[in-house]
Automatic annotation (TrEMBL):
Residues annotated as signal peptide: 1-21
Origin: domain of life: Eukaryota
Keyword Iron annotated: yes
GO MF entry, a single one: metal ion binding
Organism: Chaetoceros tenuissimus
Gene3D superfamilies, A to Z: q2cbj1_9rhob like domain
The entry's keywords: Iron, Metal-binding, Oxidoreductase, Signal
Keyword Zinc-finger: no
Protein name per UniProt: Fe2OG dioxygenase domain-containing protein
Similarity remark: Belongs to the iron/ascorbate-dependent oxidoreductase family.
Fe2OG dioxygenase domain ranges (all copies): 260-366
Length: 390
């Protein structure tokens, strides 16, 4: 149901019920005429008809009261209406991306309007301006290296970016890298805006098929958080950092068009909510995983591990391969750290023991959700200018 069409639909529904009530009255009268070959007395007929009409009148009054109540709701803001919705509890932890999809589709437009109202009625212009500028939230030396490469895409400038990246996971496999992405101030700005969303009273859809706690950040997805500050920030991070960095780090896997779309969401782990995450691969060609814990927000456990399930090129002996395959490489997150890895890399999150871990995850993929698997030949890799959008 579209939010803008609620009132017309209610009017049509009321008319339909009124028509049905009229039909019931006529059918009841006819049934009295037919009973016992017209043997019902006039007095009995009047009593029965009056009782039936009273019942129908009561039903009509109830319908009118419901319509008036909904019309009264329509005079309230979309934000007020969205806050009155009761969200169905997220339960599934496997293949649950469409859990309660009907609910989110029905109320999607209303929720989007609510986020729009919230963004204009309850915003801090100073913080909004700060969070919209990457220079205010990205680690200074890394930001400078990225900006320099956008302005002048050369292999020499890329080398400066490489110096900020540390390989994570299986050594020498080019499966994953990590770097310090966000400053402490950037973390506080981002978390402040996310806290504004979670405390708004607006319902938020589960982030993905496995995680139940967190939110989707998107302007179009029904049930997603669509605050412009957050959707614009995610878009900028992808275009300025995630997409070119993925093309540079995983040149054999990412070509033109393989990274044109993305899906962003937050996840939250603690003992009372999601405790861990089972082994899986992402629906992406590359994944950005950014820790959002503030420096003072400590936690124990919840390390992410990558699985080395690919046969090394230099392993010809089966016994050696069996010793190496399926090794787990544990990665602990520092506040503001970004892990970028191939979506095809098997990974999981170990159980959290204490505290809460907050992360922003962005899946990057091709048009319509396509995820390329086959590697490119080296002669088909994107050049440095193509990697950085020139």
């Amino acid at each position: 149901m579209k939010y803008t069409n609620v009132i017309p639909l209610l009017h049509l529904g009321a008319l339909a019920l009124q028509t049905a009530a009229k039909d019931v009255t006529e059918q009841t009268k006819d049934s009295f005429e037919e009973k016992n070959g017209y043997s019902v007395t006039k007095h009995e007929k009047n009593i029965n008809l009056q009782a039936n009409e009273n019942s129908i009148g009561l039903k009509q009054n109830m319908v009118e009261a419901n319509v008036q109540s909904r019309q009264k709701d329509e005079s309230c803001s979309a934000l007020d209406q969205a806050r009155r919705l009761e969200v169905p509890k997220a339960k599934g932890t496997i293949d649950a991306e469409f859990e309660h999809a009907d609910f989110w589709d029905e109320h999607g437009d209303l929720i989007k309007l609510a986020w729009s109202e919230l963004s204009t009625s309850n915003s801090n212009e100073t913080e909004n301006a700060a969070i919209s500028n990457l220079q205010n939230i990205i680690h200074p030396s890394f930001y400078s290296a990225v900006e320099a490469t956008h302005r002048n895409p050369t292999e020499a400038n890329e080398e400066v970016i490489w110096s900020h990246m540390k390989e994570a996971g299986p050594p020498g496999k080019s499966q994953a890298y990590k770097t310090q992405l966000l400053t402490d101030e950037g973390l506080r700005l981002l978390r402040s805006e996310l806290d504004r969303a979670t405390s708004s009273g607006i319902l938020m859809r589960r982030p993905n098929a496995m995680n139940r706690y967190g939110c989707i950040i998107d302007r179009e997805v029904n049930g997603a958080v669509s605050l412009p500050t957050l959707t614009s920030l995610v878009k900028t991070v992808v275009s300025k950092i995630g997409r070119p960095l993925g093309r540079m780090l995983f040149a054999d896997a990412v070509g033109e068009g393989d990274d044109c779309e993305y899906f962003a969401f937050t996840i939250r782990y603690n003992a009372e909510e999601d405790l861990e995450l089972k082994e899986h691969r992402d629906a992406s060609v590359i994944t950005l995983n950014i820790n959002l814990n503030l420096p003072e927000e400590t936690y124990d456990g919840s390390s992410l591990y990558l699985v080395d399930d690919e046969k090394p090129l230099d392993f010809d002996v089966a016994d050696d391969y069996e010793e190496e395959r399926n090794k787990r490489y544990s990665i602990s997150f520092d506040p503001g750290m970004m892990l970028i890895h191939r979506g095809s890399t098997q990974h999981a999150a170990l159980p959290i023991k204490e505290g809460t871990r907050h992360n922003l995850v962005i899946w990057v993929f091709g048009a319509g959700g396509d995820v390329r698997i086959a590697p490119y030949e080296k002669e088909d890799w994107l050049g440095v200018s193509e990697r950085w959008g020139k």
